[in-house]
Specification:
One of its GO terms (molecular function) is endonuclease activity. The chain is α+β, with helices and mostly antiparallel strands. The protein has nine helices and 27 strands. The strands form ten sheets. It has a five-stranded mixed sheet. A hairpin with a 7-residue loop joins strand 1 and strand 2. The chain is elongated and about 80 Å long.
Length: 433
């Protein structure tokens, strides 16, 4: 790569900034065409979908429920390999990608193909830059800024960098190579994270059903297929027989959460998004006086979610190890007990417990679990002294695993940020190729 001094000029477009002096800026309609070919009569029933992470994929791989009949797709449009597909309602948050397929796309998607002097891969990279995506805010029609449908007439008038065709091709090829290297590193780190997560699940299940020294213990059949053999001196009990109390939380709305509130509280959605295995402080606060009714929990209590969209998440449990009295919101089940809190929480999140929580719920779109179902969960119980030993062992092991995964996650974030920065620098001519 030869070094040379590039002269720059102001592009006149704020998101682009300075560009090489010999580059131009052109409206999108002069660089890309919208494909307006419809699917009536039906030419294909191969439906394409769009995700922020994976780009354009077959609809069947998205995991969406329900089939689309041929009658449903006569209003769809056609897309071809090397078309840029973008979601007119979500492009500002990165719902855009380059298609590798011929298929039918939703009417809310646009399919764009290149004009004679435009390289489609170069322009796809422009669409990948968050700076460009952010510049599209305000062009749409709707209530929420990130869910506004951007009319094609507005998109057509957006200005884009327009280098000579040979440079477009060169930049696209350079980014293909660089992004492939970055993506492989990210995939490798994601594999490591998933491997550690699976190891963690396996370790927890092994410890809470077999103990820390299974080689020196005598075993007996638990009588429950998904649990199998357990140490001879351990017990199996339903949760209702070891619970002091099982009860539900009461609704706490967003409007009833205050930064300066005097009472810590947990809302059910936060169990999915903000809490892991255990916590000793709450993220949210409220005032008791604004609530119609209250449900409290304290040290050692285990909280379960009642509702979820994913079957594997239903009945997610966390244990509270703080010492302040707290309030539980609606769709939360609270378990009060006299077992070792950390051990019982691990036991209720292991494979055999998850199998019980999800049993018979596979076909439901929104999954619910009741207090009665929670109370009837079987749990394997060693003596309290062994519970303590197992919990302390798992705390240390899981902390190491979580720390490793946290480090890998930070590396992934850094790589993705570098990739975005690299793409932006290249497609606006600020980095010499």
């Amino acid at each position: 790569m030869k070094s040379r001094i590039l002269e720059f000029k102001d592009s006149g477009i704020s998101w682009i900034g300075q560009i090489p002096k010999h580059w131009e800026v052109k409206r999108l309609k002069f660089t890309l065409n919208e494909r307006k070919e419809n699917n009536k009569p039906v030419k294909t029933d191969f439906i394409l979908s769009l995700t922020n992470e994976k780009g354009v994929i077959p609809y069947s791989e998205k995991g969406a429920q329900g089939n689309i009949s041929k009658d449903d797709i006569t209003g769809y449009k056609l897309a071809y390999p090397n078309d840029i597909i973008l979601n007119s309602m979500n492009v500002v948050i990165g719902s855009v990608g380059l298609s590798s397929y011929f298929g039918a796309i939703s009417p809310v998607y646009y399919a764009l193909y290149s004009k004679e002097n435009s390289n489609i891969k170069f322009y796809n990279y422009i669409f990948q830059t968050s700076v460009f995506q952010n510049s599209l805010k305000g062009l749409g029609n709707g209530i929420l800024e990130i869910r506004m449908r951007i009319p094609m007439s507005n998109l057509n008038n957006v200005f884009l960098p327009y280098p000579p065709l040979n440079e477009q091709k060169k930049i696209a090829e350079f980014l293909d190579k660089k992004c492939e290297i970055i993506d492989k590193r990210v995939e490798n780190l994601e594999r490591k994270i998933n491997t550690l997560k699976e190891y963690k699940k396996s370790l927890i299940s092994e410890c809470v059903t077999k103990g820390l020294n299974p080689k020196i213990l005598k075993f007996k059949d638990s009588g429950i297929p998904w649990i199998g053999q357990i140490p001879k001196h351990w017990e199996i009990k339903k949760l209702k027989y070891i619970a002091t109390k099982i009860y539900k939380g009461n609704g706490i709305t967003k409007e009833q959460v205050f930064e300066n509130g005097d009472m810590p509280c947990v809302r059910y959605g936060e169990i999915y998004t903000k809490y892991n295995y255990s916590f000793d402080e709450c993220f949210s606060y409220t005032f008791e006086k604004v609530l119609n009714s209250t449900s409290y929990f304290g040290y050692g209590d285990i909280l379960f979610t009642c509702t979820g969209e994913l079957i594997e998440e239903i009945g997610k449990n966390v244990v509270y190890l703080g010492h302040k009295k707290c309030l539980a919101g609606g769709d939360i089940i609270i378990l009060n007990h006299k077992q070792n809190p950390s051990f019982l929480n691990y036991a209720l999140d292991c494979n055999y417990a998850r199998n019980q929580k999800s049993y018979g719920k596979a076909k439901l779109k929104v999954v619910h679990i009741s207090s009665r179902e929670i109370s009837n969960l079987f749990v394997v119980l060693p003596p309290l002294n062994e519970q303590k030993e197992i919990a302390e062992f798992l705390d240390k092991k899981c902390e190491k695993i979580d720390r490793l995964n946290e480090n890998y996650t930070k590396q992934i974030t850094t790589l993705k940020e570098y990739k975005k920065s690299l793409i932006y620098e290249c497609v606006t001519g600020k980095k010499e190729i």
